[in-house]
Amino acid sequence: MRFLTAAVLFVVSVIMILAGVALRTIWLPPTHHTQFITLNTKQPLVTVAHSVITQYPGNPEVEVAGPANVNVAVGRQNDVVAWVGDTSHSLVTIKHGDATVSHETGLGVFANPAGSDLWREEVSASNHVQLRVNTADDAAMLLSTDGISAAPQQIKLTWQLAVDTTGSRLLLIVGGVFLVLAILINWWAWYTMRRDRGPRRKTPKAPQGPKLRRKSGNIVAPTKGRRSARNLAVAGAILGLSMTLSGCGLIGGQASPSVTATPTTSQVKLDPPVVTQKQLVNIVNRIAVSVGKADASHNPKLLVDRIAGPALAARQAHYHLQAASKNIPNLPPLLTDNLKFGLPAASNQWPRVVMALATGADSKALPQMLVFQQATPRSQYQLWYDIDMLPGVATPAVAATSVGAIPIAPDSLFLKIAPNALPTAFGNLIDQGPSSLSAPMFNVANDEFYQQVAQSQAVQKANLHNGKITVTHALGDPNVMSLSTANSGALVSVYMSDTYVIKPNKATQAVAVQGNEKLLLGAAGSASGIRSVYGTMLLFYVPAVASPDKILTLGATQVLISVRGL
Q1: Cis amide linkage into residue 344, ω under 30° from 0
Q2: pLDDT tens across 449-484, in order?
């Protein structure tokens, strides 16, 4: 019997092992799916829709070939469409399950998409490009050579398909176990046979007593005792189990209601963030390189492509100072060592805003809030605000980079004060102190910038005996950029222009200047008076209109812009 059991187990194990091997070899389903697309087009731009690269699960490996340079840019489909605009191009889409190529004509201007800040990933090479495309967040592709010549003609997409090997693994494991059992049982049967082998002698049977014949009939089990009680308990358990299985969910003869959790509210779907973390790092590094080159040569022309607005005005004025004196050091470089957080706008529209809090390797350097803006789809992001954060000030909680923040209009009425009204209100607080009407809105207890500027202005007025000083605080640039925080407030970057006009009381007197003002004026003073303009890039936290919190100054950078005689 043992030999038969071993034989059966052996046959079963062989069958299971062979089946498992077959599932890994001849019966193995396809491990990848490949699709070839031939364009046959002379258009300089080819867009590959999101539906093409998501025909199968996973991130496809894309190979693009052409007779010349090949550039493949990956970005959000809306961004790709916006960049192409009305320019003639070819479009690869999916219709009725097949990839089709259509040709779109337009009057847009041809341009080279290489190097655009819109792209999450970009690869360029001669004749052939290979990359794995991340299909997340509605990704699409834009193929080109130089934006003018014909685009690449051959596209190959390969998806790695997930193959479940659980069945074959189970067959191999169980088959191996059965094989081991067959070997062990066969060995035990052989050992037992060898042990029992030897001389056998026939022994006489022992005397047996008379056989007792029992009457046939029904046997009645005893009704009392421990055995009957045990049988009764087993029967009761079986009966209770059957009733439980057959009447599961019954309460009082009726089916008990099943409770299913259903959502009662639907989440509001926001627009996706305008950049990813990887894009933001690339943008910051590219702008930092341009700023570094301009600072090294003191050439403002190298700034205009990557810096605009208040940040451009500040560096241009500083270059003028450095031209007047070789002792003027460079402005602090843009910090790129670590982006503490990135806050992109969640939007599909232009212009687009991104804020990034950057820190440097030197722990003594103050963190910088860098604020970028992209005016149009084909424009590059430009640095508009470069603001030094104030020490000891905590930045309010903001959304993650993968979520983004809602852009806030400059004249929004949902905040404690409209963002474009901040310079006037804050300037009035500097001039009048606690007696200002805007004082209750601001928290200046630990505001070092406010305290220094207000004290300096008060001392200047007190020491001016032979002249009169007039200070005006106004909005220096209408391009105020604001993004929402996690508690419905906003981070507001704004430019405040501070104009100081000093006039002598008598015609025989003059106004003297010194330091940087003397360098920009090119003289020691003026008999008619001096007009000095300081530009201050400010970062505020402005709470919601119904919030009990106060407006907080988070960062400030003040630069002397111009000095001239009256």
Answers
A1: no
A2: 999 999 999 998 888 888 899 999 999 999 999 999
